[in-house]
Amino acid sequence: MELIKSGSNINFVGKMKMAFILSFAMIIISIASVILHGGLNYGIDFAGGALVQIKFHQEPSIDSVRSAFKNIGLENSIIQSFGPNEVVVRAAESSTDPKGLTGRIDDALTTAFAKGSYEIRRVEVVGPKVGKDLTRKAILAIVFSWIGMLIYIAWRFEFRYAVGGILALVHDVIITIGAFSILNKEFDLTIIAALLTIIGYSINDTIVVFDRIRENTRKNIKQSLGDTINMSVNQTLSRTILTALTVFIVVVVLFFFGGAVIHDFAFALLVGVVVGTYSSIFIASPIILVWEKIRPNIKRKK
Amino acid sequence: MLKSIKIRAALACIVLIAGLFFLTPSLMSSLPDLWQKYLPKDKIHLGLDLQGGMHLVLEVDTDKATESAMERTSNDLKEALMDKKVRFRHIERTKNNTISLELPDSASRAAFEKVMKDHYPDIETTTSQIRDGNETVSLKLKEKKINEIKKLTIEQSLETIRNRVDQFGISEPEIIPQGEDRIVIQLPGIKDTTRAKNLIGKTALLEFKLVDEEHSLDDALRGNVPDGSVIANENRLDRQSGRRTNIPILLKNKTLLTGGYLESAQVKIGDRFGEPYVGIKFNTQGAKDFDRITGENVKKRLAIVLDGIVHSAPVIQERISGGEAQITGSFTMDEAKDLAIVLRAGALPAPVHILEERTVGPSLGQDSIDKGLWSTIIGGILVMIFMIVYYKFSGVVANVALIMNMIVILGTLAAFRATLTLPGIAGIVLTIGMAVDANVLIFERIREELRAGKTPRAAIETGYSRAFLTILDTNVTTLIAALFLFGFGTGPVKGFAVTLSIGIVVSMFTAIFVTRIIFDHFVWDRKIQTVSI
Question: I need a surface site. Which of A4, A158, B36, B214 has the fewest CB within 10 A?
Answer without folding.
Answer: B214
